Amino acid sequence: TIEDDGSGMTQEIASQIFEPFFTTKQKGTGLGMAIVHRIMTAHGGSVMARPLEHGGSQIVLLFPRTAAIRNAVRS
């Protein structure tokens, strides 16, 4: 989980943040979070964004647990 304490984002922005070329920045490309989303899903993971109640934003990255990792943890 990654959090900041900036001005945050609306729920509407959070729902669009992973779309290619979506940006709220004047000079942004809108590709950063789209690339993060693509990488995470390509590896079987997921990523979510949400505004925090008292300002700021939260990005949650969920990584899959692979058989190799499960075996290493059990050893």
What does this structure look like?
The protein is of the alpha+beta class. The protein has one domain: Histidine kinase-like ATPase, C-terminal domain (Heat Shock Protein 90, 2-Layer Sandwich), CATH 3.30.565.10. It is built from three helices and three strands. A hairpin with a 5-residue loop joins β2 (46-51) and β3. The protein is globular and about 50 Å long. The mean pLDDT is 92.
Percent of residues in beta strands: 15-25%
- The coarse overall form would be globular
Query: Could you tell me how far the N terminus lies from the C terminus, measured between alpha carbons in angstroms?
Result: 27 Å
Q: State the strand order across the main sheet.
A: 1-3-2
CATH class: Alpha Beta
CATH topology: Heat Shock Protein 90
Spell out the helices and strands N to C. EHHEEH
Overall residue-averaged pLDDT value: 92
The DSSP helix count reads 3
Domain count: the total is 1
Helix content: 25-40%
Q: What class do helices, strands and sheet pairing give? A: alpha+beta
Q: List low-pLDDT spans.
A: none
CATH architecture annotation: 2-Layer Sandwich
The biggest sheet, with number of strands, parallel, antiparallel or mixed sense and barrel status, is:
3 strands, antiparallel
CATH superfamily, by name, is Histidine kinase-like ATPase, C-terminal domain
What's the total number of strands?
Answer: 3
| Radius of gyration over C-alpha positions, nearest whole angstrom | 15 Å
